[in-house]
Design goal:
single chain, alpha+beta, Dna Ligase, domain 1, 2 domains, six-stranded antiparallel sheet, four-stranded parallel sheet, 24 strands
Length: 471
């Protein structure tokens, strides 16, 4: 069995009647589970992402090695050494971020849960990383429930008569991570109680509710609130409950981005109830403010620059070389590219078809300029603008494409989509994976396009079920 053959077999099942029935069932299941990003359904296609066990092993191994390499390099940022200053200079941390990072989170892992955004080609010959969402990664709960929704489709039932599938649930790892961090910090408050914290009115609010239900069902009291709802009294962090009372919180599942938190509160962020509780050890924050060390886009400038490779093992260096694209902070000066010295700005200006520009600390595709899709004038303007605020320039990677079926006007239309494979990490271990599809180069659901689908590992033996059903 080849993966391409399995995909072709799946598509061959999509006769009009079965396709219509499957789309209706998927729509019903998404509605029942609130699988929406704002008002948009998460999935707009009829097939999940299928990967082989060997592809998943490559994804897990490569991601773990690069994640470990990243941690080995940024560890210096917590030191007062010359190397530490050089690392901080590349990361371009703000003074307020440095103040927050200096506070010990109570546990050692700088990013307890994260997501690596990657392109994994269907033939498994190319695995390229493009971003590391190490601060506030979304979609774990979405993917678990989307898996359930896809399994309910009649076409999946037919497909699994021939192919065995293994699911990749991840919510249980998120639950375990919260409790492990709390216990490592000395179990503040003696009882784990969670607040999921982000601004009100966000399109990801449905996922917060999914986590609240899941945590509560597993004996972990949980509320959802915004930063302005929190208070700190008598040594306790308090969050309002739907009943109108205050619940002591000992674990903050921090979904609010540090950059937005600091932008909103400014210097007053340092005396915010959340930071007061964190600084005094009254609660743990997951992820802590130290996740910022790994979240900055310029992390890839550290990884791809051999000047910072001394702490890395041979295996980590090989993984970085294979999977991490060349990246540099946008600033005047001499650097290296493919082992040759270059003057960065003239070189990047001349070779726009090789590169894209990214803000150092944004999300949702904001502010990105794709060189090979821009005119010379547009690229020059973007490069000039990138000198006025923290930006990175990153080399173009091999983008993964696959055919996906959608139901359009009652007919199945199969078209090529860009495919993002984004494994979830807990510490540096991969468990689970987000998959995003798009018809445009900027592959991001937040940016307003594309589809999300669950990921299944496929085997070519007769199926007796859907593999791991511990959702």
């Amino acid at each position: 069995m080849t993966l391409a053959q399995a995909i072709a077999d799946y598509h061959a099942l999509l006769e009009p009647a079965l396709a219509i029935d499957s789309w209706q069932r998927l729509t019903e299941e998404m509605r029942a589970r609130q699988l929406y990003f704002g008002e948009r359904p998460l999935a707009t296609v009829l097939r999940p992402r299928l990967i082989t066990a060997s592809q998943y092993d490559l994804l897990r191994r490569g991601t773990q090695q690069v994640a470990e390499a990243a941690r080995a390099i940024v560890a210096a940022a917590l030191e007062s050494s010359e190397l530490g200053q050089e690392v901080r200079d590349v990361l371009m941390l703000t003074p307020l971020e440095e103040r927050l990072i200096a506070m010990h989170p109570g546990y050692l892992e700088p990013s307890a849960h994260s997501r690596m955004d990657t392109f994994l080609t269907v033939d498994g010959t190319s695995l390229q990383f493009v971003e590391y969402n190490a601060e506030s990664p979304a979609a774990i709960a979405y993917e678990d429930l989307l898996t359930q929704a896809f399994l309910a489709m009649p076409v999946m039932t037919e497909f699994m008569k021939r192919y065995a599938l293994t699911t990749l649930p991840a919510r249980q790892y998120m639950l375990r991570t919260l409790l492990d961090c709390w216990q490592a910090a000395g179990s503040p408050g003696h009882e784990p109680r969670v607040a999921i914290v982000d601004w009100h009115g966000l399109p990801t609010a449905t996922e917060f509710e999914m986590f609240r239900r899941y945590f509560t069902e597993h004996g972990l009291p949980t509320v959802i609130c915004a930063p302005q709802d929190l208070s700190f009294r008598d040594g306790q962090l308090l969050a309002p409950t739907p009943e109108g009372s205050d619940m002591p919180v000992t674990i903050v599942f921090k979904r609010v981005l540090t950059s937005e938190f600091l932008s909103h509160y400014g210097e007053e962020a340092l005396t915010h109830p959340l930071v007061q509780a964190y600084a005094t050890g009254a609660c743990v924050i997951v992820n802590s403010f130290r996740a910022k060390l790994l979240h900055k886009k310029s992390l890839f400038a550290l990884l791809s620059d051999e000047r910072f490779h001394d702490p890395l093992t041979a295996a980590q260096r090989a993984a970085v070389a294979a999977h991490v694209p060349w990246t540099r902070v946008v600033r005047p000066g001499i650097t290296t590219y493919q082992h040759e010295l270059i003057d960065l700005l003239p070189f990047v200006r001349k070779n726009r078809e090789r590169f894209l520009l990214k803000p150092n600390d944004e999300y949702g595709g904001k502010g990105i300029t794709i060189g090979w899709e821009a005119s010379a004038d547009e690229w020059d303007a973007a490069l000039q603008a990138a000198l006025t605020s923290p930006f990175v320039v990153q080399e173009r990677v091999t983008i993964a494409y696959e055919p996906y079926p959608a139901l359009i006007d009652g007919q199945v239309v199969i078209s090529e989509r860009l495919v993002d494979s984004d494994p979830f990490l807990f510490g540096t271990e991969v468990n689970g994976c987000l998959c995003r599809l798009s018809t445009v180069t900027l592959l991001n659901v937040t940016a307003g396009g594309g589809s999300t689908v669950p990921v299944f590992i496929i085997e070519d033996s007769p199926a007796s079920g859907a593999g791991d059903d511990s959702l």
